[in-house]
Amino acid sequence: SKVLELLALQIDQLLDNSPRLTLSSTDMDRIYQAESILMQNMIHPPSLIELSRQVHLNDRKLKEGFRQVFGTTVFGYLHGQRMQQAQELLQEHQITVKEVAKCVGYASRSSFVAAFKKYYNTSPSCYLKDAKGH
Known about the structure:
8 helices
């Protein structure tokens, strides 16, 4: 019964029907501006507080609005974009995994490899081998 109770709580959280944040057109513009700032500063992104100040939104509205517009958190979005860019760089076969890691903002190769493997369920080197084989 405890498992069922925990499962019910988990489902409740997933189906959270709390009222959604209402975003004005100005707020929407600011959310897209925040996304643009993240993409321009992918290697050294601003903190959430810095980003919210740059786009003149409080951090709560930025976080909730970003989730509403992009379906993920601010830094979840950034992570996904980094992984997509890394995948594209690996497909080009012209730079090493270490160089790809640096290009997408990872200080260490091992951190990048772990993040890539978690995101794509394969290591960058295996991805490279598969890409060369096709």
